[in-house]
Amino acid sequence: MWRRFIYHPEVNYALRQTLVLCLPVLFGLLIGNLQLGLMFSLVPACCNIAGLDTPHKRFIKRLVVGGSLFAFSSFLLQQCLLWQIPLPLIMLGLALLLGVNGEISPLHARLMPAALVASIFTLSMAGSVPIWHGPLLYIVGTIWYGAFTWFWFLLWKGQPIRENLSQLYVQLGDYMEAKYSLLTQHIDPETALPPLLQRQQKVMDLIAQIYQQMHMLSLVHNPEYKRLLRYFQVALDLQEHITVSLSQPDEVQKLVEKSQAEAILRRNAQVITERLKTVADDILYHRYPQHFSMDNELSALEKLSNQHPDNPVGKFCYYHFSRVARLLERQRPLYQRNLMSTQQRLPFWPALRAYLSLKSVALRNAARLGITLAAGSSLGMLFHLPKPYWVLLTIMLVIQNGYNATRVRIQHRALGTFVGLIAAAGLLQLNLPLNVTLSCMLVITIAAYLVLRKNYGLAVIGFTITAVYTLQLLQLNGLHFLVPRLIDTVLGCILAFASTIWLWPQWQSGLLRKNAHQALEAYQDELRLLLSPEPKTAAMAYARMKVNQAHNAVFTSLNQAMQEPGFDSRYLTDMRLWITHSQFIVEHLNAMTILARDHYMLTENLAQDYLQRCEIALQLCQQRLEHDGPTLNDNAAVFQSDDQETNGMPVTQIEVHLRRIIAHLRAMHTISSIAWRQRPHHGIWMSRKLRD
Question: What is the rounded end-to-end Cα distance, in angstroms, of the chain?
Fold first, then answer.
């Protein structure tokens, strides 16, 4: 019970965040300077936004850079105010100055909003404390945050990675269960694939996160992290075999009608699912795995395969289920490989040159944020708001990447703040003693962090109550803060929503075609490796993961585009069908990667012939994504697929997969032509829809 409590992801996260906030408050209370302790609680918020709560092999360097940027932003804002520079210009200039971090790397990009939040917190102190007070507060606070975080991760032995690894095994188990629970009903791809695609999306998102975490850590000298790396490589092999599909529902129906195949397959899938969830708990709660065997289930499956040699379903399932069982029994990857390389950090000067281009995404994001903060500052000055920095802070907390994420965050923030202010107004009427007030703040803080990662709106209720109590303890004006805080929140949410729509919006329906292009390019790279004379196992494994991630990006864009205002439902419906065929191609590439690793290859001439046909088909699909031009008659033969024998020789499994890939590309080529006619000019059309 103790392990399940202390290692529970939400409990562990809540304890870490609460302690790093409350220990300085306790220290300030003991030395008789509670105000200083409460001011220290502002720094962890900046560190969390900057991503300094993530273990990293350059952890000290990141702390130094983060703390320096916090102190620099604090000092520069106060100095500019002394020079009587208008606040809107200051916020715009700070955003543009710090936006270069977005060009260096995605991890550095988080430093810009964190430094802006630090400057906004400084705005609340400007004029009441010396100019050196804010920078010193951020430097000392960052040192404290770094020391506490380093000790916490050392104490809990890689708990953040364990949480993601555990969740990955859970998602793999859910995928396995969903795939075989309704075996006989998975006939129509329109109804069978969407639930599996949703689960596959979660699996690929977790794999991408763990890739990033593994690359951020030094795995050479730490046995604990080496063990976690082995678990991750096993999960990659499991994903390869679990998500592969035979794509022959008719053959499945035939086998089910002739035998007890459905019960046997369900039993095997159930045993694997239960074992995956047991391994997930073992990873999360630091337990050694128990013995596992599914010989009886595999024997029944092998017998089924031998009884029906003409049906490919039995052999297919036995092959992949036996590999999955072997992975779960031995907890060793099927083959050794290094981790796939991730995006590298761009040096400062090349990043600065890229940032100064008008095409730079980082520059647009910085300009969007700076203009929004400038507008919020101008409104605060125009309406003489008592605490205008809350408008700016609300803007920083609700703006997300993309329209839908920002819309959901705004709803949670506004409703959570409203409910929290009502609750705080009632609690302030109680006139509680200081020790009782601090105890209530501690309990509310823990409760808010317990639900933060699952329900942001509920967490905002708790944070709003503690913010009101903090102002009450610092300035004895908590009640006077309630109505202005609500007004500031509403203004900040309105400005954030307006900037997301009108200032260089990144509509996912507009990015859908770009992501589709990248997916087709990933398929082409994988086919070149698979059909090369000497395919390399490691290179194929990396390419396979890139194929899955590229397809997942297209699917994610489609789901987000469906939530955007005024989308063309016919166009997105056609693109959903396009993505369905793309999913089949991904599954065929997964299966071909396994066959190529087991040396089931084609002759060199035949491989080059298929590669040429696939490349031409992929290029035609890319062209159709751009325009609906006529198809050349010379290329019409590319999409022809013959399932009969070739020159008296039987068709191999590799050829079967290649011919089905060409068939799916033919369907995608046709769908792209139809979708092109329905695709609107997105910017003009979206503006008209929103205006109406």
Answer: 58
Residue 410 pLDDT greater than 50, yes or no:
yes
Tokens of 36: 């200083």
HSE toward the beta carbon, residue 172, CA cutoff 13 A: 31
Q: Per-residue pLDDT tens for 176-197?
A: 988 887 666 555 656 667 777 8
Q: pLDDT tens digits for 78-103?
A: 999 999 999 999 999 999 999 999 88
Cβ neighbour number for residue 692 with a 10 Å cutoff: 6
DSSP string, 274-327: HHHHHHHHHHHTT-PPPP---HHHHHHHHHHHHH-TT-HHHHHHHHHHHHHHHH
Beta bridge partners of 129: 126
Token readout for 371 is 């203009």
**Which amino acid type is present at position 217?**
L
Q: Between helices 361-382 and 111-125, what is the axis angle to 10°?
A: 20
Please check the confidence at residue 687 and state whether its pLDDT lies above 50.
no
Burial of 476 (C-beta count, 10 Å sphere; 0-12/13-18/19+): exposed
Q: Which long-range contacts (CB under 8 A, 24 or more apart) does 223-232 make?
A: 224/157, 224/158, 225/158, 225/161, 228/158, 228/161, 228/162, 228/165, 228/283, 229/339, 230/331, 230/332, 230/333, 231/165, 231/279, 231/283, 231/331, 232/165, 232/168
> Contact, 453 vs 18, CB < 8 A?
no
Q: Rounded to whole angstroms, how far apart are CA atoms 53 and 75?
A: 24
Distance CA 331, CA 280 (A): 12
CA–CA dist 100, 92 (Å, integer): 14
- The size of the chain, in residues, is 692
Q: Where are the alpha helices (DSSP H) in 50-182?
A: 59-82, 87-98, 101-104, 106-109, 111-125, 133-156, 159-181
CA gap 279, 287 in Å, rounded: 9
pLDDT band at 313; cut points 50, 70, 90: confident
Report the candidate in 491, 485, 475 with the shortest Cα–Cα distance to residue 423: 485
Least confident of 124-138, 156-170, 561-575, 678-692: 678-692
Residue type, 254: K
Closest CA to 104 of 441, 459, 345: 345
Residue 676 has pLDDT above 90, yes or no: no
Convert 435-493 into a string of H (helix), E (strand) and C (coil).
HHHHHHHHHHHHHHHHHHCCCHHHHHHHHHHHHHHHHHHHHCCCHHHHHHHHHHHHHHH
Pair 446, 14: CB distance under 8 Å: yes
Query: Are the C-beta atoms of residues 589 and 544 closer than 8 Å to each other?
Result: yes
Residue 489 pLDDT class (50, 70, 90 cuts):
very high
> Which residue shows structure tokens 């794509």?
247
CA pair distance 317, 234, nearest whole angstrom:
19
pLDDT of residue 227: 86
DSSP assignment string, 113-135: HHHHHHHHHHHHHBTTB-TTHHH
**Choice among 104-108, 432-436, 567-571 with the minimum mean pLDDT:** 567-571
Rounded to 5°, angle at Cα 262 from 258 and 265: 125
Residue 126's beta-bridge partner residues? 129
Confidence of residue 640 (pLDDT cuts 50, 70, 90): low
Q: pLDDT tens across 206-233, in order?
A: 998 888 787 776 555 677 778 888 999 9
Give the span between the Cα atoms of 434 and 437, in whole angstroms.
5
